[in-house]
Amino acid sequence: MGRDVNLNRLAIFVALVRAGSFTAAAAQLGMTKAMVSQHLLRLEHELGVTLIVRSTRRMALTEAGAAFHADCVQLLEQAEAAIERVGDQRSTPAGTLRLTTSTDYGTAVVAPALAEFHRLHPRVQVDLVINDQINDLIAERFDLAIRIGWLRDSNLRATRLGGFRQLLVATPAYLAEHGIPRRPEDVALHGWIAMSALTTPLRWTFTRGRIRRVVRMRQVMQANNAAAIRALVLAGAGLSVLPDYLAEDDIQAGRLQVLLAQYQLLEGGIHVVYPDPQPPAKVRAFIDFMRDRLAKR
Fold it and tell me: pLDDT tens digits for 68-102?
């Protein structure tokens, strides 16, 4: 910018022209007549041109002042429109919602939910990125991420949407061949399909009231993705633990059987994390939508 101009004085200049006099402008702006005059003088000094010629009874725009006034009116209208658009984003869900989540949860839960969310909020476009990496939300320009399990410490804002149970499962065919474990210790005698992404994929704690049983499994296979674990279990490769949202359809259809149902495994959380301390309406609407949807499951 060639000149150091105080942009606040543009609004005062436009108000002065609209009011037609320093006295009327001062009343509208809530300042003294002398302050209005001082702002005009400083604006003219900053610009290096005379904008208004005035006498004791009247004032008139110079040629430069008339052209500058037209430009200022346009600038202020654009600024007001920009402020209004920002306000709309704050109050009305619109724009592109860019989010990321894990492969298994994104496919099983988030994608179907987004279809319903878009029907409720047609002005929101969706950009869903599914992978099993922890994305940098700020660098990659994500509005939010849905994280499954246990949150890492971070500077992001987090809201709990719900939780999920972990279920020990196997196919009926596998159990018919290898037998049904009746106690947690029996699971160690079976082939275990391990989730390699876990910190302790071969050590599991079964809880029943005050009873705790820690069992170390005998690994026969491993995979780094819950959907792959599910596929291996369904193929009869062994036993494993699956989240309820990934196993419930197979359980209801009889493809999988829950084992040791009288015991509980550690439950996991479902959280939405986001970088914006004042998230726009599209983010707030999606958080509320997902929380209500998961509460009905």
Answer: 999 999 998 888 878 777 765 566 899 999 999 99
- For residue 144, give the nearest of 289, 22, 20 by alpha carbon: 289
Dist CA 94 CA 82 (whole Å): 15
* Tens digits of residue pLDDT in 266-284: 999 999 999 988 899 999 9
pTM of structure: 0.68
Residue 157, phi then psi, degrees to nearest 5: -80, 145
HSE of 113, CA atoms in CB hemisphere, 13 A: 22
| Structural domains of the chain in order of their starting residue, each with its CATH number | 8-91 (1.10.10.10), 95-164+269-295 (3.40.190.10), 166-266 (3.40.190.10)
Identify whether the C-beta of residue 43 lies closer than 8 Å to the C-beta of residue 17. no
Structure tokens at 159: 């809201």
Contact 160, 269 (CB under 8 A): yes
d(C-alpha 234, C-alpha 173), whole Å: 10
Question: In angstroms, how far is CA 21 from the centroid of its own chain?
Answer: 51
Residues present in the chain in total: 297
Asked whether the predicted pLDDT for residue 1 surpasses 50, the reply is no
Residue 77 CB contacts under 8 Å (≥ 6 apart), including other chains: none
- 């929380």: which residue's tokens? 291
3-state secondary structure 82-144: HHHHHHHHHHCCCEEEEEEECHHHHHHHHHHHHHHHHHHCCCEEEEEEECCCCCCCCCCCCCE
pLDDT in tens, 184-209: 999 999 999 999 988 899 999 999 99
